Amino acid sequence: MKKYGNEFKIGIIVCVALLVLGYMTIKAGDFSFKTEGYHVYVSFDDVAGLEKNAPVRLRGVEVGNVEDIGLNYDNHCTKILLTLWIDAKFKIRGAPIAYIRSLGLMGEKYIQLIDEKNSDTFLKPATIVSGKTPGDFEKLMDSAEVIAKNTNELILEARSVAQNINLLLTNNEKTITKTVQHLESASCNFNEFSEDLRRNPWKLLFKAKEKKKNEK
Q1: Bridge partners of 102?
Q2: What is residue 197's predicted lDDT score, i.e. its pLDDT?
Q3: Average pLDDT over the chain, rounded to whole?
Q4: What pLDDT score does 105 carry?
Q5: What pLDDT is attached to residue 41?
Q6: Is the model's pLDDT at 205 over the cut of 90?
Q7: Inter-CA distances, 181 with 99, 169, 172, 177, Å
């Protein structure tokens, strides 16, 4: 039986390692063996950290990627122009709108294309698509922080008012109790007086005559 030397074994290991290294380089780098496709361009004011090779999705389905990111100087306005590569087997209806989305709060950014559902025409290659600039996340976080701070201050003020009311009630508990008792007593006396007048209305006339005599 033929035996292989150490040099041959080492050569096999080196070849396998080179193949693995080449595969990883192609997978992680800018190298790709693409099928047939076409280009679509998208104009943005801000791409919010979007990078090359980011996925392009059409209604959630991956249809291509971002091939290039460049600046377009148009008169007094500077725009960011994205070059999207779209797989030839996918067609985009009507005049789509491009959005920059992310997978989760801090996830990978990608392009989301929303096409027209009821259009009979398809987007032609090299067409410039309208892009909706994403909201400023930092401004949103600042606004949320301000709202949280104001809410916390309102809660503290509400607690302070509640404590002051509780302290006021505690310090004037006896006075409040006496006032309530006096009101209850006055109410009872008034009820008794009303009941007495209802039963003996002549007393009211008698008191009126007595008052006139006293005035004379």
Answers
A1: 109
A2: 66
A3: 78
A4: 60
A5: 94
A6: no
A7: 71, 16, 14, 6
Whether 129 and 147 map to the same domain: the answer is no
User: Do 78 and 47 form a contact (C-beta atoms < 8 A)?
Assistant: no
pTM, 2 dp:
0.49
pLDDT at 1: 46
Higher pLDDT, 203 or 101: 101
Question: Could you tell me the residue range of the domain that residue 170 belongs to?
Answer: 142-215
DSSP per position, the chain: -----HHHHHHHHHHHHHHHHHHHHHHHSS-----SEEEEEEEES--TT--TT-EEEETTEEEEEEEEEEEEEETTEEEEEEEEEEETT---BSS-EEEEEESSTTS-EEEEEE--TT-SSBPPTTPEEEEEPPP-HHHHHHHHHHHHHHHHHHHHHHHHHHHHHHHHHHHTHHHHHHHHHHHHHHHHHHHHHHHHHHH-THHHHHHHHHHHHHH-
Distance CA 70, CA 80 (A): 6
End residue of a domain, out of 135, 151, 166: 135
Q: Which residues pair with 113 in a beta bridge?
A: 58, 98
Return phi, psi of residue 174, to 5°: -65, -45
